[in-house]
């Protein structure tokens, strides 16, 4: 398990799946705001790649996020589109509603940076998030990500096009211990 100050990132366990499906995935608005793919219902027990992990998919590394204190499941995190030639990847995360606003998101980003830069030897990490997602923007910026641009009207979200902000962090600018 990868450990931050408050959370751990571990493999997806089978009994995580119904919790993630009910509390995260089945929330159509939240899903539509945090996933580029359109929401659609997932049949319980199906092999849908949004929840079931395919260990053979090397470019996509999903984690379940747990509280270090007690091990309760609090959400998901992912390093995706890992490109070993350009040594870059994207990061994504989603916390259960009851676990938001307690500093976990900032900690998850820190752990994903450690995984990307230290464990995987990457050079650049990237995040795209809706321009009104203040908590995600702040979680990224507290870990040193900088805003590199606005992708105008790039996301179709519940009936309208919204802007996304592109944030990036290079390994040489990463300061693992100071989140200011
Ligand atoms: C985005 C998300 C991962 C952030 O995690 P979090 O644990 O809620 O965020 P934190 O508690 O670490 O807060 C980070 C910062 O944002 C601020 N913040 C938290 N919630 C906020 C809100 N609703 N509005 C404005 N600021 C907020 C915090 O005060 C903190 O700022 P600080 O460092 O100055 O104190 C989480 O809210 C979430 O899962 N949201 C739904 C899914 C999602 O949007 N995923 C991202 C898709 S790209």
TrEMBL record:
Annotated Gene Ontology cellular component terms: cytoplasm
Keyword Transcription (UniProt): no
Matching SUPFAM superfamilies: Acyl-CoA N-acyltransferases (Nat)
InterPro entries from the UniProt entry: Acyl_CoA_acyltransferase (IPR016181), GNAT_dom (IPR000182), Ribosomal_N-acetyltransferase (IPR051908)
GO molecular function: protein N-terminal-serine acetyltransferase activity; protein-N-terminal-alanine acetyltransferase activity
Taxonomy, superkingdom: Bacteria
The protein, known as: GNAT family N-acetyltransferase
């Amino acid at each position: 398990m990868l450990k931050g100050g408050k959370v751990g990132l571990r493999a997806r366990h089978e009994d995580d799946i119904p919790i993630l499906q009910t509390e995260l995935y089945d929330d159509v608005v939240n899903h539509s705001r945090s996933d580029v793919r359109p929401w659609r219902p997932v049949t319980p027990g199906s092999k849908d790649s949004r929840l079931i992990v395919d260990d053979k998919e090397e470019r996509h590394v999903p984690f379940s996020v747990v509280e270090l204190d007690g091990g309760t499941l609090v959400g998901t995190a992912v390093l995706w589109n890992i490109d070993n030639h350009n040594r870059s990847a994207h990061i994504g995360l989603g916390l259960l509603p009851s676990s938001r606003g307690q500093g976990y998101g900032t900690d998850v980003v820190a752990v994903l940076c450690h995984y990307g830069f230290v464990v995987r030897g990457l050079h650049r990490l990237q995040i795209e998030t809706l321009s009104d997602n203040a908590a995600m923007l702040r979680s990224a910026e507290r870990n040193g990500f900088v805003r590199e641009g606005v992708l105008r009207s790039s996301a179709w979200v519940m009936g309208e096009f919204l802007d996304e902000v592109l944030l990036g962090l290079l390994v040489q600018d990463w300061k693992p211990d100071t989140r200011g």
